[in-house]
Amino acid sequence: MTLAVWISFLAAAFNLSAVFLFGSTGEIVVEKSGHLNLGIPGVMSVGAAAGCMTVYSLMKAGITSEFALLFLPMLSTILAGGLMGLLYSFMTVTLRANQNVTGLAMTTFGLGLAGHFMNGLKANFGKIASASYAYKNFFKVDVKLGDTGFVNSMKQIFLSHGFLVYFAIIVAIVAQIILSKTRTGLHLRAVGESPATADAAGINVTAYKYIATIIGCAIAALGGLYAIMEHLFGRWDYVCEGFGWLSIALVIFTIWRPGLAIPGSIIFGALYILKEKWLVTNETIKFAIKVLPYVMTIIVLIITSIVGSKKAQAPGSLGTNYFREER
Amino acid sequence: MEHEIAIQMKNITKTFGPVVANRGVNLDIRKGEILSVLGENGCGKTTLMNMIAGIYYPDEGQIFVNGEEVTIKSPKDAFRYKIGMIHQHFKLIDVFTAAQNIALGVKKGRYSLKKVAAEVRDMCDRYGFQIDPKKMIHEMSVSEKQTVEIIKVLYRGADILILDEPTAVLTPQEIRTLFKVLREMKKDGKSIVIITHKLNEVMEISDRVAVLRKGEHIATVDTKDTSEKELADMMVGKKVELNIDRKDPVDPKPRLFIEHLYVKNKEGRYAVEDVSFTINGGEILGIAGIAGNGQKELLEGIAGLQRVSKGDIIFHNPKKNKPVTFFHKKLRQIKRMAAEGFFHDPQGNKVDFKGKSNKEIIRLVNEEQVLFYEDEIIDLRHRTPRQIQELGIKLSFVPEDRLNMGLVGNMSIVDNMALRSYRKGRSIFVNKKRPKALADKIIRELEVVTPSDMTPVRRLSGGNVQKVLVGREISSSPKVLMAAYPVRGLDINSSYLIYNLLNQQKEKNVAVVFVGEDLDVLLALSDRLLVISGGKVAGIVDARKVTKEEVGMLMLSNAKADAHAVKTAAENAAEEDKQ
User: Fold this and answer.
1) Alpha-carbon distance B391 to B396, whole Å?
2) Per CB distance under 8 Å, which residues of A are interface residues toward B?
3) What residue ranges do the domains of chain A occupy?
4) Is pLDDT at A309 greater than 70 in this prediction?
5) What's the pLDDT tens digit per position in B313-367?
6) Residue A74, Cα to own-chain centre: how many angstroms?
7) What domains does chain B contain, in order, with CATH numbers?
């Protein structure tokens, strides 16, 4: 395998990593509030569908400004994701529905809803795909393909991507800083660890849970938009779902730290690409490779459980709904 | 001398459903004093203080802070009035550092853990605490955690600190340190309230003592003008005559021997230490003691639910002249026991099965031709809970939240009955006929209020749940019945129903162990009374002769701290026994 292939492999891995990074950062924010949202695949699909519809209507209206084509779909994706988050938190925080059941219902609901709209757009996928240049070119640095000099290679791996890749990293870093360095982050973590304690300390548990879930889902939805704009070109079925589950796995893989999710997402991206494009032609091995991200997640889970460090565990109240005992 | 008053409570009343927790309480907390709030379990002392701390809201009455009437609806409100409470169960987050926990929920200035840490060190110097702000809570000892809780409250600027049983979890050295700190804070002008039931600590630390009994404020006295004896009398009060029909035990025979029993609690400390006593058939043995003094561990140890560290539990199975069955024993066991001379036939001749084929032996056993010669003696240690249950030793424990032990909330009464009997029968399907009959019988006889026998237990009221729980254990015709807090939270009529049930069991020659909270009931129901204190036996007395005050002293004697009092009270009781 030549160096050029390696470089383009790494570039593609980095390019794809943003999907996982959005998904897992969003899910980490949700889980830090103590809610396990298994609806991420649904949220990502709905986000993708909302983005596509916006792109389509913009193009129909004859708007070709790169800026509009980039930011308006992002805005609608964020809105759609936030609405899904609002629905999830209404069910689990206010109505105290079981989180696992609600999450899975959100996934099926989201996939169905997105599928409905995407099927309607099917004829126009080509058009939408042609708009994805907005995503690819914004911020992009030109590289000479085939030049394997150091500077050019680095450029190709790290700088030859669209705007959303960098935005994903910024979001992850900001999330990490908020979680570990600010009072808001401290309070959010407290809510996720022990809502009763947070409540006794005068923290508005319900507000934190709602806001974290809505923001988290909005972030995750961007992952769906990115996936469909950058990678799919008209293929739609089941893809967002797969990305969604992998994002949830990545949360465990990175032991609930958005900062660690940056390298983690690149690893997941590489493993995902490995089967998709390069290096392997044997079908059996392809399938084996497909499983790798999940296998690695399980290994991480086993290791953190054996080591038993309290720092590397899921938030204490993850999966259980809180309600202040009324006496 | 005039005292400045920090908090004044006027005519405070609080009820939980039909249960009155506090009735018309008037209490003052002065500035710069240490006030003890003393009382038995369930006398409403914690509830009362929770109302100042914003956990509960009083149904009636007024609270004044510095002379102004206030409404305290949440802990946040309480902090506004500079009131902070340190609960028995610490409210700390395990994976945070001390500083993070202290900063939680406080919005003052820019968020900087360094600043918090500096302030914490400041406080440590002022009051003599020792704490590392960067240490994680899960790496801390109980006393360190308590320190963090106190600092947390101080950090929010509290001037009035309420500590709920602060010494319950501490070692004697740690208690000394805590008291030193409390005195320092008092010097600094802070008011400190300690909720407790330990008399010796009350005498040592407090300036004044407020005594509560059954939700009512009995008196507040200056510590220097009172004695432990006087306080104990105020706590337990005058004896109330209850109309429980107690018959004299007929021919009580030892059923269960507990010898030098040691059981550890969850934290790995001994909750039961060197406890020895005998339980007789046809008698009710009451166990008195302040909750959390090892009652639960003791009963669970006997029932096989907790590992027994040391000691013996010997069960005399009343099998004399009863036929042996295959229910508990395998053929091999029966043959071995026969060889050792355990059995005789109805004519009184020894049975040893010599020269008999297995088939013949099975026939003889099934025809009830093989009888026990003596009571069977069984060591219950190393038996599984299930084996112990099958021997007829039943435990019905009503925990504080009532639903967590013994019943499945989402299942119906019938299904809960079937939980005990599903192993019987050969079919792979559960036979619901008998559980249903039993459920209906319990509903009828114990007057359980329920829409139907298929209603999930969770939907029943607390009292009805308890009736189902106790009824199920009694229905299984036990040989030893251990009922812990069976009337917890029940109204009077339901309570009497349960007392009568226990008495009926006693008349059926069952050995009944009754763990209760209400001394009056214990004295009126039991034949003998075992008083447990600090996990040790403080005395075993005749419930017909002992006085309430004596039992009160025994309960409070906390074997370690006040060995002398234990002795004298126990001796008094023993002397009375002789007379």
Assistant:
1) 15
2) 182-183, 186-187, 189-190, 193-194, 196-198, 200-203, 310-311, 313, 316, 327
3) 3-312
4) yes
5) 888 877 766 777 766 677 777 777 777 777 777 777 777 777 777 887 778 777 7
6) 14
7) 5-236 (3.40.50.300), 238-311+387-392+477-579 (3.40.50.300), 319-374 (no CATH), 409-468 (no CATH)
pLDDT digits (tens, 9 = 90+) for B256-272: 889 899 998 877 778 88
Site from B95, B110, B401 to mutate, A interface, most A CB atoms within 10 angstroms: B95
Q: Note whether B94 contacts A203, CB cutoff 8 Å.
A: no
What CATH number matches the domain at A3-312, 1.10.1660, 1.10.3470, 3.30.450, 1.10.8?
1.10.3470
CA separation, residue B540 to residues B263, B468, B526, B574 (Å): 20, 31, 12, 8
A318-321, long-range: CB < 8 A, 24+ apart: A318/A31, A318/A34, A318/A35, A318/A36, A318/A192, A319/A34, A319/A35, A319/A36, A319/A99, A319/A100, A320/A34, A320/A99, A321/A92, A321/A93, A321/A96, A321/A97, A321/A98, A321/A99
Identity of the residue in B76, B96, B103 whose CB atom sits nearest the CB atom of A202: B76
Quick check: A202 and B96 CB within 8 A?
no
Rounded to a whole number, what is the distance in Å from the CA of B152 to chain A's nearest CA?
Answer: 10
Q: Which residue of A has its CA nearest to B100?
A: A186
pTM of the model: 0.74
Buried b (16+ CB within 10 A) or exposed e, B494-506: bbbbbbebbbebb
Cβ(B392)–Cβ(B478) below 8 Å: yes
Q: How many helices (H) and strands (E) does chain B have?
A: 19, 22
Measured in degrees and rounded to the nearest 5, phi and psi for residue B361 equal: -60, -45
Q: Does B157 touch chain A (CB under 8 A)?
A: no
Over B473-520, what HEC string results?
HHHCCCCEEEEECCCCCCCHHHHHHHHHHHHHHHHCCCEEEEECCCHH
B95 to A203: CB separation less than 8 angstroms, yes or no: no
Distance between B64 CA and the closest CA of chain A, angstroms: 22
